[in-house]
Amino acid sequence: MTEKINITEESELLICDLQFFADKDGKTEKPTARKRSKAREEGQVVKSMEINTAFLLIFMFSSLEIFGPFIYGRITSIFEDTYILLPQLDNIFTNTYMLDFGPHIFSQIMIIVSPLFAVALAVGITISYVQVGWHPTFKPLRPKFSRMNPISGFGRLFSKHSLVELIKSIVKVAIIGVVIYSSVIDEVDNIVLLLDMELLQMVQYIGKVIIDMGIKVGMFFIFIAAADYAFQRYEHEQNLKMTKEEVKDEYKMTEGNPEIKSKVRQKMREISLRRMMQEIPKADVVITNPTHYAVAIQYDSNIASAPIVIAKGVDYLALRIKSIAGENNIEIVENKPLARALYQTVDIGKEIPPELYQAVAEVLAFVYSLKKNM
């Protein structure tokens, strides 16, 4: 008896533990296409800024290496222009000199940074386009008062997203430290020789070391970017998940309420049936099974080149067709195979197929002869 009690208690504990892992919000369903589209319009897309950072580091430092001689020449030109003014220190701060020299220096600085700015802009746009495509929106920039709530803001400080960001920051700092340390260790022998180098050689050497370190950091950042993108995709999917009730509500909004749609279809069937019954008095003959099928045929050479099925039905509806035909003195002809074939192959308002011409023509000829004798 004691063993049974222990087993029961363990089972209850197990159930409680499993409930701990359950989705407290009840969001267990995958997001619908409409939910994804709406989230994209709101600016909620899978995007990792670490990918932009990694490629920006690689391309920017590579650009420094490519445009290094150009930048050096421009900087040298600025210093030369500045040294020319040294003999004229008494007049350098006058309005005339400032209006002439200031715009000149500013234009030279803009020329220096323009290649780097163009590369950064091109890389940023390209990487963002590869990640999320072209869908510009300003909705994420709109102020949201919910973000000003101190309680929710305090909660975000200890969220899973904040924890991941903290880990990323620590890893990035560690990578930068390791790369700088390894680069300095590798260049220890050359650093000692800096005192014997000329200024230009010293600048070129230091610039090369910095560029190499920047490219190495960017290459290591790619691994962080890949892991961050995977996490961003996972978090995005979790945020978009829906409850079963939300899925039902969205289905009602997009596809319509099933009950209303059913009532609409029923109403349309009633209208179609009423219209069909109103057409029966125009028939030339009703071909029956005799109990299960009834098909009303009309032939008017001015309307169509072949006889048309204007009404058809089975069981109770077949009895209604025959009843209306009897009330309007329309001939009812029993032909089991023809009635079944017409019902199964010809829709209401359509001409009979050529393979049934002969059989229907014989029935119509019989009906016309009866009317003539009468």
Question: What are the defining features of this structure?
Answer:
374 residues, mainly alpha, name from scop, four-stranded mixed β-sheet, 14 helices, 6% strand, disordered N terminus, cell projection, transmembrane
Overall description:
With 374 residues, this protein is mostly helical. It folds into two domains: 206 residues, no CATH class; 102 residues, 3-Layer(aba) Sandwich (name from scop). It is built from 14 helices and four strands. Strands 3-2-1-4 form a four-stranded mixed beta sheet, sandwiched between helices. A hairpin with a 4-residue loop joins strand 1 and strand 2. Helix 3 packs antiparallel against helix 9 and helix 7 runs antiparallel to helix 9. It is elongated, with a radius of gyration of 42 Å. It holds the Pfam family Bac_export_2. Belongs to the type III secretion exporter family. It is found in: Cell membrane.
